[in-house]
Amino acid sequence: MQPxxxxxxxxxxxxxxxxxxxxxxxxxxxxxxxxxxxxxxxxLVCLQEVETRSLRSTAMHRGDDTQLERFVKMLSAALAExxxxxxxxxxxxxxxxxxxxxxxxxxxxxxxILAHSDFAVDHHNAxxxxxxxxxRLHVVKRFKQTRICAHVRFRHRTQPSHGLIDVFNTHLSxxxxxxxxxxxxxxxxxxxxxxxxxxxxxVRFVEKERASDRFVVVGDFNALPGSPVxxxxxxxxGWIDAFGQSSRLSLDELVAWPTAGFMRLRMHLDxxxxxxxxxxxxxxxxxxxxxxxxPFYGLSDHMPMVARCRVARGDxxxxxx
Length: 321
Hints:
CATH topology: Deoxyribonuclease I, Chain A
Low-confidence stretches: none
């Protein structure tokens, strides 16, 4: 199989210009054009913070399309404008809905995965994404936003089943403010006991579902390199930090390399973790948050991780059941 690209991006509901209050057509079009301009194009586009249909997602849009349906149309238009005969199939993974009534949602949360038409998706859990939420520490549990893990198993359409790759897309909670560590640990992000439990739930799901060691786990982990969440995944369970390995940065340098920002804060929260059945080649087109030369500058409070890899041939380590 030829090298392939995977893009992971927290798009902030396509509403960064309105501080997340409502998605805008301009933001969606600019993100679509930035993706369409990537060369090579990603095989998979994994998005976090995507809505279905709600008051927030439709305030500045007309029609009955969901947010993801609108974005896919804009991406198709951007590809056509760039004279690239490419297309994507989209899968939406619902997480949570804040309702005024059974039919009226104030806003919704979820994940999305777009698969390039050259690739076949042999399995996905869009109808029932896996709940990884830890609710025990939340004061009012029913208001705790659900966190999920999306899963697709895909391959190039010309490849037999031994070329299958498992990709997991997720978005962990922020650390709970109702714990002692939130007030005593200066870095906080990745130190929350609730986050660590969600990381463990994530590991259990990945280890159960992956078909081989050819797997990737991407997303917004709300956790810094070196945090307990990070060490749980890398040290305790042997997942590889693909960006850390590719960039050859030290742990302190990784912490200082921002993927997201809030006001003047800069944080490394987005990660690409992987099994040993995938060899990572580069992170070209991945830029630090705040880099004004980046095509994705100013489009979200995160920057995308754009990773290129090659899948190992032959047998790889099976999942731990």
